[in-house]
Amino acid sequence: MKKIWLAGGCFWGVEAYFMQLTGVLNTVVGYGQGNTDQPTYQQVCTGTTGYTEVCEVTYDEKILPLEKLLEHYFRIIDPTTLNRQGPDKGTQYRTGLYYLLNDDKDVINNFIKRLQLQYTDQIVVEVEPMKCFFPAEDYHQKYLEKTPGGYCHVNLGLAKPDERK
Does residue 10 carry a catalytic annotation? Predict the structure, then answer.
């Protein structure tokens, strides 16, 4: 099992999208890369903590290799928009890929380098080692599962039927 942290705007949609994929074992939404201890949603929303909304994804790399996971990630984000996804604006909604292993860093950077050839605008997705992660409040966990029809900027239908659990 491996972990990666994905920032792609509001974490509710990112989590719901990845939870439906074969090979994803668990998700936890939370706050990553900031500069305070135990941030709250209200603090993160001020844009002053340095945190971004992230989804921690635990996955089986034998079933869902990192490159395939990255393909899914880039399906649901606009990688050329800084500090915004859909209607969500602010530094807490920036895009980012946060890893633990340097091998993953190389895979991510090579993937983005190839992907950049498809864009005229610069890809602005952060790629950094995960420095800190704090799970979000309970009401954020599996939010769209608990709140059918709840807000989501991610098109959950982008996962093909053969890619779903």
Answer: yes
